[in-house]
Protein: Acetyl-CoA acetyltransferase
Amino acid sequence: MTSGTPYGNRRVAVAGVALSDCGRVDEATPYALHAQAARRALADSGLDRSVIDGFASAGLGTLAPVEVAEYLGLHPTWVDSTSVGGSTWEVLAAHAADAIAAGHANAVLLVYGSTARADLKAGRRTANLSFGARGPLQFEVPYGHTLIAKYAMAARRHMHQYGTTLEQLARIAVQARANAATNPDAMYRDPVTVDEVLSGPVIADPFTKLHCCIRSDGGCAVLLVAEDYVHDLAKPPVWVLGSGTAVSHTTMSEWDDFTVSPAAVSGRLAFERAGVRPDEIDLAELYDAFTYMTLVTLEDLGFCAKGEGGAFVEKGRLLRDGELPVNTDGGGLAACHPGMRGLFLLVEAVRQLRGEAGPDRQVRKPGGALPQLAVASGTGGWFCSSGTVVLGRG
Structure:
């Protein structure tokens, strides 16, 4: 097969997934983590690197993804580097799946790597993240309206409007840490309590430290292929059933409702295109830079009604053996968060659907069957963008 052949509407499968070394990685460059994850994902697929004719990457290099493709020795004829924050990887996966379905590419590699923690430790960067002061942002920057302050403001609005409590938000962090406890790749595995979350140092009211994602190093890769390659795969395929993307705002003054994220649009589109309902989903991997992000995404994807997220996250519903397992690896609150975490959501969803998570943390349906449907939903900026992908077995 050659790129550009008009195959029509082909099915798209996840052929391989992998993590690079994650957590505390002091001796590697971001490029090395990209390469390590890419090699491992290719080995996981059982395919030869010669099949790769599409490449997507963001977050590294002056000419991303050209520099990373060159480093990996790839010469793609389809490329994408759409960068919309944390939702980047779900958006890139949607673009890649569309390209494969249309015959514009046959096998697209998505790869990410970051040494954000190591760079900070070594003094190669500071902890501050600036999006600049040009354009619409010029009207907020003078007031010190930081990224975390934007999330905190939105959380306060949800608390005011719906009675959501800090204790309910804290339970999200507690359940994330509990899910991480059985993940050998997680950076933080010790349990925490609601009281420990609430009593930590305040970062931006109402968020204490444990309401916020961790900072780690790490990378991962996902290989998407046309259905033509399925018979050559080393493992059963996981199918891309549907996807949706959406953007909302840049400045907070243009955000219509602080309690509604763009996942309300991307999720609806993804479920409609996949032909499934939220209540059919067996597990959800959601971007969780902050506890409030998890709560509002659960509402906007339709797992509970608007304003009921606080009650929904109580009683252990998000645990691996709960009603709706969420962030089964521990998420960005406990497992890893090296910058843009969205690709990690897809890796974990695929591993769970394949039944590869291991005996201590594998999600099972009632009766012991493996999960059939998963959703991965990434959020970018301060709820500025969203990408949602529905995946399925068989």
